[in-house]
Amino acid sequence: MHPYISCLFTLAVKPSEFAEFKALIAQIVTATKEEPGTLVYEYSVNEDNSTAHILERYNADAVVSHVDTTFAPFGKRFLELCTITGLTVYGTPDAEIRKRLDPFGAVYMTPFDGFGR
Q1: For 54-66, how does the pLDDT look when each residue is reduced to its tens digit (9 = 90+)?
Q2: Antiparallel, parallel or unpaired: β 38-45 and 51-59
Q3: Rounded CA separation 61/78 (Å)
Q4: Where are the domains of the chain?
Q5: What average pLDDT does this structure show over 47-55?
Q6: Which fold has domain 4-109?
Q7: Helices 72-81 & 18-32, crossing angle to 10 degrees?
Q8: Who's near 71: CB < 8 A, 6+ residues apart?
Q9: What is the DSSP letter of 15?
Q10: DSSP for 17-78?
Q11: Tens digit of pLDDT for each residue in 65-105?
């Protein structure tokens, strides 16, 4: 298994609900900062606030805890404020990680060369 799992989520957000979405994300980011195995957790948005991306990178053993413990209390409201239109996963997630990401329509990309710093 690759030591890191990276995810790129693409979200459709209603611009009229972006302020509420942004406030919820601030809460999720605050909670996620407490996870020692979360290495990158960044939200970005396009100019009209209709498309957002989440760039995430975890130690492989931290993904399940993030989904089950940290994100779970926010999940229902999150999915009311946005629609996940894409999820690309990089690394070699095990069956437990895939079980959490598959419901979001994950596309898995397996590394075959390169390096990180």
Answers
A1: 999 999 999 999 9
A2: antiparallel
A3: 24
A4: 4-109
A5: 97
A6: Alpha-Beta Plaits (3.30.70)
A7: 160
A8: 28, 32, 78
A9: G
A10: GHHHHHHHHHHHHHHHTT-TTEEEEEEEE-TTSSEEEEEEEEEGGGHHHIIIIIIHHHHHHH
A11: 999 999 999 999 999 999 999 999 999 999 999 999 999 99
